[in-house]
Amino acid sequence: MVLAGLIAPTAHAATDAPEITPVIQDVLSPPRWYEGDDGRVHVSYELLLTNAAPVETTVQALEVLDQRGRRLARLTGARLRAAMGWPTAPRATRRLEPFAVGIAFPDLTFRDAGSLPRRIRHRLTVRLAPGLPVPSVVRNVAGEAGVTRRKPVAIAPPLAGSGWIAIVGAHRRAVQPFDGALHNGQRFAVDFAARLDASGRALVATRR
Question: What does the DSSP assignment read for the chain?
């Protein structure tokens, strides 16, 4: 049966009925952890969201679950909007145009490395614009991925001397297409772009 552009597959059994999932979830690369300046352990990764529906879809909630189904985080409203968006997008938005691709950048926090989950998955709640003979709100669980257990590599400061500062912090959203796939090769990159003088200044204006 064709549903205005969406095809509903035939169920093989009453207990195994297929569910319509207008937004497809895909974790781009294994989530990795690191110790933050706040004394907590963070897990960073990218979640690709593909709107396969012929109508606009709004992401209402994104929940992260562990391997037992326990909720680790829930993003809604302003927090969700701030976590979504392409690097060069003019503004963050929870809306996905028909057949468009969006991306979310979750940041999970834990007490220590021993509290890390082995695997994560996502419960996504979306609202569809009118025009399809399907529920206006759809919720499904997908986007499963294993969390990297390997301890992060610690490197020494790349510059000699003191006073260096990072004008731009970690390139959290530097997602780029290479070799037929999306990669965030600069996920933890930092630009040390200025050196402060004894007065804490990076630049000093002078007159000629």
Answer: -EETTEEPPPPSSGGG-----SEEEEESS--EEEE-TTSSEEEE--EEEEE-SSS-EEEEEEEEEETTS-EEEEEEHHHHHHHB--TT-SS--SEE-TT-EEEE--EEEESSGGG--SEEEEEEEEEEPSSSSS-SEEEEEEEEEEPP-SPPPP---SS-SS-EEEEE---TT--EEETTEEE-TTTT--EEEEE--TTS-S------
Q: Give me the CATH topology for the region 2-150.
A: Immunoglobulin-like (2.60.40)
Q: Distance between CA 93 and CA 200 in Å, rounded? A: 37
The answer on pLDDT for 178 being more than 90 is no
pLDDT (0 to 100) of residue 11: 40
Domain boundaries, the chain: 2-150, 155-208
pLDDT in tens, 76-116: 999 999 899 876 666 778 999 999 999 999 999 999 999 99
